[in-house]
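Researcher: Go.
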Amino acid sequence: AEPLGLGHALLCARPALSDSAPLLIILGDHLYASTHTTGASCLKQLLAAYTGTSLMALQRTRVEEVHRYGCVAGTWEQRPAQHSRTGAAAGDATATGAPIDARTEIDADTDATTAIPPTDPIPARHNAEHHPENPSEHPPAPGGGRSSGGGLASPARLAISSLVEKPSGEAARSSLRVPGLPDGTFLTAFGLYLVASTGGLMRSLDGLLRARGDSPAAPPLQLTEALNATRIEGGLHGVLLHGERCDIGGEPQTYLRAIGALARAAEGGAGPA
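Model: Structure:
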């Protein structure tokens, strides 16, 4: 059958889902490699960040690449705890050496930025010149907050106000800037989602499918529009995870990038998750 979009694929799975339960969406053509200091998987990080509001994992992406992904804008939420200014400097990694365990508490001074996927030439850590003079003007650090439900420290969290599927670089610069990010850097979909209301998402997709009609020229049914409805109805937060997203379902060169990213993860003792 001809693929009709991620939204259509989710509708095909509806008979196996419960409308009253949250829905975890993991893209089948992606691999995820954790860079968390404890080795906690990307999925574990996302689940630990869930507090009842729908979530989508985010990554930093250069403007030259935003046309490949869903892109968001919004405002940073107040993080639960600030970095210590007397201990390790913000941005320094604190290696705990602790095993992966849902009960493990992450120190508030863990790594101050999420890893950048191999398609992005942005440094894996913020350089000093990327930090505004006023600390409140730059985004909270992933892993910089108090523990959420899963025992891991809360990642940086964005209250999403706009979500656009594969915008042009010009459109992103015009309306999708996020305060505190370096110029030319945007927040895009990481490929992991946790939707609070499965029923609400499915009803949105049903309505979009009916509006789409049966025309062969109709565009694919994407998840983005339904997530926008989710955002309006109950809120949608974005979280920056410690990890790399490896797209193995796109252009041929993405396979090479995925191999490189997984090799780096294996050398560091982490694996796809």
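Model: The longest helix spans residues 198-212.
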